Amino acid sequence: MPRGRAANGSGTIVKLKGRKNPYQIQYTVDGVRKYKSGFASHEEAAVALRSITASVDSRQYVDPQKMPLSQWLSIWLSEYCRDVKASSMVAYEGYVRNHIVPALGRVSLCDLNPHQIQTFINHLTRKDKIQEKPLAYKTIRNIHGCLSGALKKAVEIRYIRENPASGCSIPRPDSDLGGRDIHPLEGAQIPTFLKAIRGSRYERIYYIALCTGMRLSEILGLQWSRVLTESSELIVDRQLALSRHAGDARVLTATKSRNSRRIMVPDAVIRLLDDQKRDQAAWKAAAGKHWSNRDNLCFTDQFGNSLSHASVFDVYKRIVAGIGLPDRRFHDLRHTFATESIRAGVDYETLSKHLGHFSVAFTLDVYGHVTDAMKRDASSRMQAVIQSWENV
């Protein structure tokens, strides 16, 4: 008896032998059997199969190779980025929405080529809009990385044969050749900043950032159980994740490096945290049943709710603008701690571990210019000594 025609949209998952990514999906479109391979797990294949069969049933199916890049990016974000941190997802969505889709969204996957992507990247480096700053080199790298990551996944599941973004070069502007875009507070700016934050709502957060080099998310996610008063140490193993969408609850996640570190801090920081603990106890007593600090966070509002990154940052921007430093980012407090530590003689390996960098080489790459400046200064002072000898 002849085999019946498969129902439109029906599909199965098959595991092929001898392949690194062994799972294949098989599905039917208008009586034609189609195949897609390259899935690493049954779950990944099932996600793809559900998406395809649903689109076939709703008559919205588009052959993967002919799929517009905008459609694939939407699928990639929703189906293949589920283990990405919320803060990274916010960044990815912004890159896709504000840069990639407006420029390349209508191009089909099969028609996308390296030249188009290189032209897109080159355009991002140009200051061709009135009164608009060109994108930072790091931002352009991140946009390219986002696009390349999405296309890499398309290659892995056999939607396209090659990643057209893999050979792209990212021009580095002359202004960026001397080092990374960091602007630490220097010299008299530091005491000026400390004076300016006195009495502000988030004074203690700014002080801790400056004196420990902790990231804002790490400070906002610091729990009382991680404050070791007797040894003047903090255990940094959590961060308060940015909300992906307005109204989303902020949650504790692993740190950026996904590692735990124990850092020694000045006694002044421990005293400050003791003051914070006393104030928080008073808030809890006043709030009564309305207190909600379930994660036992060190920094909350007066009802125990976690603090918003945006609120802390907005107050900070007003403060630095008020002292004539409007271009300073909150992260520059971390850079200030690092550069002052180097000037104080802290070695790079110790500093790297303290900051939670993944390698000493990365720390050297970011802050090597500080050591270079110190060497030049030492050389100049030695030259002055030599001249004094010659003048005797």
Write up this protein.
- By secondary structure, the protein is mainly alpha-helical.
- The chain folds into two domains: 115 residues, DNA polymerase, domain 1; 186 residues, hpI Integrase, Chain A.
- Helix content is 48%, strand content 9%.
- The protein has 13 helices and eight strands.
- A three-stranded antiparallel β-sheet has the order 1-2-3, covered by helices on one side.
- The longest helix has 31 residues.
- The N terminus is likely disordered.
How would the blueprint of this fold be written?
Elements: E1 11-15, E2 23-29, E3 32-39, H1 42-57, H2 69-79, H3 86-104, H4 114-124, H5 137-156, H6 189-197, H7 203-212, H8 216-220, E4 227-228, E5 233-236, E6 239-240, E7 252-253, E8 261-264, H9 267-287, H10 309-322, H11 331-343, H12 348-355, H13 360-390
Antiparallel strand pairs: 1-2, 2-3, 4-5, 5-8, 6-7
Order of helices and strands: EEEHHHHHHHHEEEEEHHHHH
Give the helix proportion (percent range). 40-55%
Number of helices: 13
Number of strands: 8
Largest sheet: 3 strands, antiparallel
CATH architecture of the largest domain: Orthogonal Bundle
The coarse overall form would be globular
Mean pLDDT: 86
% residues in beta strands: 5-15%
